[in-house]
Design a protein that fits this description.
The protein has helices at residues 2-33, 44-50, 63-66, and strands at residues 74-76, 79-81, 102-104, 107-109. The protein is α+β, with helices and mostly antiparallel strands and 124 residues long.
Length: 124
């Protein structure tokens, strides 16, 4: 009887291990492809594991330089931006270009009339 109980215990542990492996694999695929729409069926442990720590530039402005694919090297309103081209932060944080203008080299210019930036930045 003792051997049957041990065998049953081992089978139960293997099934639990397989279920956890499958759940982790599915969670990793969701993290790579897209965020899951529902947390139903996901354990609290897996939810804590999948939450990503966010680094904000308001506390550490140098993070904008170190993150590949960031909006730019400068930090404005907790967002990485490029002050030389960002239309909402042209040359300084909060300086917005008017609707018909764009930010080129840190200046708001009209691409329809500007000789140095004709149609786009840097196009003479």
């Amino acid at each position: 009887m003792n051997k049957k109980l041990k065998a049953l215990f081992i089978v139960a542990m293997l099934m639990a291990l397989i279920a956890m492996t499958v759940a982790c694999f599915e969670t990793n695929n969701n993290e790579i492809n897209e965020e899951p729409n529902s947390v139903r069926g996901t354990s609290r442990f897996l939810l804590q594991r999948s939450s990503k720590a966010t680094v904000t530039c308001d506390k550490n402005p140098k993070v904008c330089d170190s993150i590949r694919g960031s909006g730019g090297p400068n930090c404005c309103n907790n967002k990485c931006v490029d002050l030389s081209t960002d239309e909402l932060n042209c040359r300084r944080c909060g300086k917005k270009c008017l609707h018909s203008k764009m930010c080129c080299e840190g200046k708001c210019v009209n691409p329809m009339t500007n000789e140095k930036h004709c149609g786009k930045c840097g196009n003479k």
